[in-house]
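Q: What does the predicted 3D structure of Lipocalin-like domain-containing protein look like?
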Amino acid sequence: MNGLTKKIYTIALLSASLFLAQSCSEDNKPNADQELTGTELRTIMETDDISSVADNALAELFADDAAAKSGSSAKTNDCYVAEYTETGFVATFNNCVLNGTDNVNGTVTVTYEVGEQSASFTATYTDFYVGTLKINGTRSFEMNGNMEANSFSFTVTSNMSVEFEDESVISESGTKTFGFAFDEELQSGSFSLAGEWTVTADGQTYAVAITDTLEGSLTCENITSGSMIVTKNGLDIVVDFGDGECDDTATLIYPNGASEEITL
């Protein structure tokens, strides 16, 4: 379970980093309150990156869980107090550095199930701090693998809020499914992203729906194909990532036909 967990965190962070964008101007764009900017697109795509800083803190606890099942059901050290059961654990942190994170404070409750080729867990954060970020809510992960086909996928369902040091808040709810496939030598492969989620930040709400699965190659640093719709203030904006060519551009298409190319 610990190995699967570490893979999830690494890949989720990689996936979030693929969506860096800058905006360029064009005529006939909507007014400012309906236009989708590069900054907003980064916010939409990077909320999973922000939330995953809390997930990273769990890796050591999964390792300790394996030890707990062969010994004591509780563990106490200078960093945290954890109570383990057959289906998960409750851990309370004491302003410590865990698994390379910033200082961690607060409580997390984790429940999980493990099958032959699948595993799932739900983490519930209660006033959970990583550095100056305050996190509340739940994140559920379900992993599925096909070892014969050298592929696996994981689905993340989030209902979380993240409060920053300046008291600004970003919240996210919804589901994302990440898929990965590799060749027999595990030297090359492809990835995909599907799902629907909603982000609220800076007084704006963005509803995201992937209409054509986003796909890419692990040899290209950007998404190479697929599209999604971002709804802002009642306006549906299409974000088109292309038709398979490895490049660093995507196109925003507004309902009035105006388009805008952005650099990834």
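A (community wiki): The structure tokens above were generated from the sequence. Confidence is low (pLDDT under 50) at residues 1-26. The first strand starts at residue 74 and ends at 76.
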